[in-house]
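User: As part of a screening pipeline, I want to sanity-check one entry by hand. Below is the sequence and the SMILES for flavin-adenine dinucleotide. Please return the complex as structure tokens so I can compare it with the automated output.
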Amino acid sequence: MRILVLGAGFGGLELSTQLSEQFGEEIEVVLIDQSGGFVFGFSKLDIMFGRKAPSEVFHPYRDINKPGLRFVQSAIRSIDPAAKRVETDAGPFDADILVVALGADLDPPATPGLLEGGHEFYTIPGAFALRAVLEDFEGGNVIVAVTSTPFKCPPAPSETALLLHDYLTGRGIRDQSTIALVMPLGLPIPPSPAASEALLAAFGDRGISWHPEKLVRGLDPDRKVALLSDGSEMPYDLFLGVPVHRAPAVVAQSGLTVDGWIPVNPLTLETAHSDVYAIGDVTSVGTPKAGVFAEGQASVAAGQIAARLRAGSTPPTYDGQGTCYLEFGHDMVARVTVTFLSGAPPVGALEGPSQEIAADKSEFGTSRIQRWFDRSWAS
Ligand SMILES: Cc1cc2nc3c(=O)[nH]c(=O)nc-3n(C[C@H](O)[C@H](O)[C@H](O)COP(=O)(O)OP(=O)(O)OC[C@H]3O[C@@H](n4cnc5c(N)ncnc54)[C@H](O)[C@@H]3O)c2cc1C
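Assistant: Here is the complex for your manual check:
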């Protein structure tokens, strides 16, 4: 029995770990990713704002050493969901059960002017390069903006604006700067009125201007203005953007997507093809695109697969619950827990912000690295 897991991100790592824990050498799990290692989404902000060194946040896949689990570093070139066969640069792989966990790709060139006149902070190279850009920044108008929907980790632009305030204050150039946050949503975190209210209050206290229900469609680098979806313009000296997201091309070409993402049974994470599952950002399951939701889906898909392999066990079903950590700046973090697929409208309770929850967030990262890579990490 061979299970092919495509993508070693949040979802693929968790699913492979659970299958190895439950079945060890009884089954063969092959985990394929083109990258050499894993980086948490939140580590991108740590690098950008100089809180960590790049080498501290990169977790090499060569450290994975679990019974029954083999990691293959290779680009996946095609997926045949009917045959459960993939072509990679390392040759073809056939599977009995296939799990697609290839995340969302980012497409900075899709936003006119973004690369020529601004910066994006969602890719690893983009966020890492911003560290030097911020160090050289001498003050001026900064825009943090989203360019399209859907986008990963909806709280991340708000966190970026708050951390930027601390960063510019620390450098003594906050007085010479403005910070504007342009978001497509009506509230910073629509499913959590309490978290939204706390964030809006934090923006107000720090003089961050909030521009809801708008996107930045492009930049005019010559005039140094951002072009907004409502036809207005905003001048900028430094532009930090969330680029366009799309399913990886190999997924789109496989025929698995509908309207850009893979539809799945929301209870089981199965696709329209038998024995083919999809988890995480690559799906349109109905939760936000975030690591905590990819992890919850991985857990349910692993349980479904386990029940298939061990007759008699009851498979778990997915309810879309996740707990997100929210950086408020001043070394304080809050926590929001939301359940998206219970049938009732999702409402997220807010805890914090506090330094205790900041320590919990650190433990969240540390515990994942311990589980997935069997080594300690001070996140
Ligand atoms: C700035 C920022 C902050 C964030 N903060 C948080 C946070 O605090 N909490 C949270 O829960 N989430 C956060 N996120 C979101 C989180 O990073 C993602 O939602 C999460 O990683 C999705 O997991 P996934 O397994 O679906 O995909 P990913 O983790 O993106 O993994 C997909 C994998 O597939 C691989 N891949 C893609 N195409 C191919 C191919 N053709 N061949 C081989 N391999 C391929 C990629 O290399 C990648 O490793 C943040 C994101 C950003 C950008």
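Points to compare against the pipeline: The two ends are 36 Å apart (CA to CA). The mean pLDDT is 97.
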